[in-house]
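pinging the channel bc i need a second pair of eyes. not urgent but kinda urgent?? the chain im working w is below, pasted from the shared doc
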Amino acid sequence: MARNLEGESQKSSVYLRGHEKDIAPHELVFTSEQQMILERKNFIIYQLTGQSVVSLREQGYPFWSYWYEDEPLEAVVSFRTEVAINPHTFFLPKSNEKTLDEQLSMMEEFSRKIESDVAGTIAILGNVADYTELAFVHLRKKGQRLFGKDFDYHYTRTTTPVDESLVALVGCFEDDGGLSIDFNHKNDCYRSVWVVPLVIPASAVGR
């Protein structure tokens, strides 16, 4: 069974996803002021609804890979909160070709900037279900495949462990093949593996 990686990496708010005790049990939304500032900065806001890879597949959403069937990864659920992404700068700039710890350090720095610009928000690295639900919601709402052609079919790392040293990736959303869930070693550095910041209300994460 996969082992939790929280103790093996930076213990910061950017890496808390996947630990249900740290997550508010009810759906949370941005304030009207936060929403206004985020939209002014070209962010798009979506409500995530606690979906899992299994529940999304059962709803008919297309997946390219199935290696994770009956693994704990399938049961991981997404946030029940609004999240904001910026499709114009979807991947955190210069976050590819980095180890997971290096990417978390960059996310921590980005989160501090977001907190400064939009009071009461933070930026996190999401889990496998967060990015999976987000990809399908964005396709349904905007007709664009996050992680698809417009994004060079690249991947984001996630907080979801596959084993002691591997973490799940989400990406390569092809028109005819569906969304890919993959994995790599947390110390590997690849040109196509980035991190995608998810901006959320700070109250969504227990501190």
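so Residues 100-117 form the longest helix (18 residues). and The helical segments are 32-40, 53-58, 100-117, 128-142. — does that match what u expected or am i reading it wrong
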